[in-house]
Please model this.
Amino acid sequence: MTILATFRRSLPLIVQCGLVLFGLTALYAMPPANGQMLLVPITADSRSVLASVAITHGARLVSAGPWAGSLLVEGRRDQLLRPLIRQGVIAISARAGGCGEPS
Model:
């Protein structure tokens, strides 16, 4: 009974800390509105159409990404995000993907 009471008292703090960590991670990985971003295919089908969909929607290919099938592109998030998600591709910040400029 004492453990349950302690857990109930701690639950709001645990949930709040979890939300803060999730929010900070999401902000760090969110692609920029305009600039370099890493496109990561989620499925094998999305890997085959990744480059063509990105170029069709205004992206400029910069290089291959650090993960198999991923691409580093330069473009505008508002033009790329919806078409890429429909194809099974996620866009993340290039820095979060390990593609940032060397320090």
Q: What stands out?
A: Residues 2-29 form the longest helix (28 residues). Helices lie at 2-29, 44-56, 77-86. Residues 26 and 57 are 24 Å apart (CA to CA).
